Amino acid sequence: MDFALSQDQKLMQASLAGTLDRACPLERVRAFAETREPVARDVWGALTELGVPGLLIAEEHGGLGLGLLDAALIAETLGAHVAPTPFLGSAILAPLAIAGAGSPAQQQAWLPRLASGDSLAGAAIAETISGARDGAGVGARGGRLNGKALFALDAAEADIVLVADSAGGLWLVAGDAPGLTRVLLTTIDVTRSVSELRFEATPAEALSSGDIAATLRRLRDAAWTMTAADMLGAAGVMIDKAVAYAKERRQFGRLIGSFQAVKHLCAEMAAELEPCRALIWYAAYAQDAVPAEASLTAAHAKAHLSEVSRFVARTATEVHGGMGITDLLGLHYWFKRVGLDRQLFGGPERVRHLAAVMQGLAAA
Question: Are 344 and 227 a contacting pair, CB within 8 Å?
Fold first, then answer.
């Protein structure tokens, strides 16, 4: 039994990191944030050349046919670069939904286009996972949708949007469908595209093949695992930046890294974060190899990383002192990335409650 990444997985992650170093430096992230671009097409194009859009799509549809563990490694690398890409909606959630609940015709129509990067997909499934919010919820009747979906990911310029209705159904809505209004939301994380979708008798195509409830669980578990991996990447970079700063910043004639208090802060961050790597790897591995453990391990990963990454973000900022909150340094991009990831698809309290329900320890 292997307890480490394969050589191919290490090479894949290293290749992606090198590509993002060139295509998505901090200057590019800052430009994206300042102009509020819906999609960083150049960054997504660089990822498309590596086959990232088709990561989970079967080879017969033009994809790579890899698994959720490979996807988690990519999510970690994207989080480390705070990359403004439609990865979660277009490369993870939509392909999983269409492959799991789409008809052969729907799969043939959309999976090759998503795999090639020619089409983008968004996902509006937050209410189904994290619970209903006031004024939100989507109803379906006669093949048309009405209502409002909040925190739709990567939907601002998507060619197709995956929508979960209040009754547990899954639908595909064309980006130019009549009655669909897309409003870009302002969140703390300006590196992510988050929208509010409004539906007024909007025509939609049902995903109705197979076990829809099982597909929704798979989407939830994948979303939890990918956001946990994203937080791992972001928090890891914040530790690296804190350690590097402690090695060069002088105070009272000494490097601050020589002070015992600063050493303890850095060591505690590393000690808290490093065990999370194995937790995420197993949660992602379980999605494909140990289905019986997939939901619970995904919940553990999401809830635990939400707490650990927040601790790392705060502590790394403290190590930087006043410089930690300046735009010049840019540390706040990773800080806010962690903040949004913490709440996407349910905050840690909500996810822990759902984990307790899975184990029969709490009422639904």
Answer: yes
Condensed to tens digits (0 to 9), the pLDDT of residues 36-49 reads 888 999 999 999 99
- Pick the closest to residue 350 from 294, 291, 306 (CA basis): 306
For residues 129 and 259, what is the distance between their CA atoms, to the nearest angstrom?
Answer: 45
Amino acid letter, residue 324: G
The identity of residue 155, as a single letter, is: A
Distance CA 5, CA 355 (A): 27
Cβ atoms of 203 and 178 closer than 8 Å: yes
Structural domains of the chain, with CATH = 7-92+105-116 (1.10.540.10), 121-207 (2.40.110.10), 212-358 (1.20.140.10)
User: DSSP H helical segments within 56-178, as ranges?
Assistant: 68-80, 94-101, 104-116, 126-130
Eight-class DSSP state of 90: I
**Residue at 286: amino acid letter:** A
Rounded Cα distance between 165 and 292, Å, is 26
Sequence letter at residue 348: P
Tell me, letter by letter, the H, E, C secondary structure of 177-236.
Answer: CCCEEEEECCCCCCCCCEEEEEEEEEECEEECCCCHHHHHHHHHHHHHHHHHHHHHHHHH
pLDDT in tens, 200-241: 999 999 999 989 999 999 999 999 999 999 999 999 999 999
**28 neighbors 43 (Cβ within 8 angstroms):** yes
The structure tokens 């290490």 sit at: 10
154 within 8 A of 122, measured Cβ to Cβ? yes
Query: Which residues, 6 or more positions from 31, have their beta carbon under 8 angstroms from its beta carbon?
Result: none
What is the model's pTM? 0.95
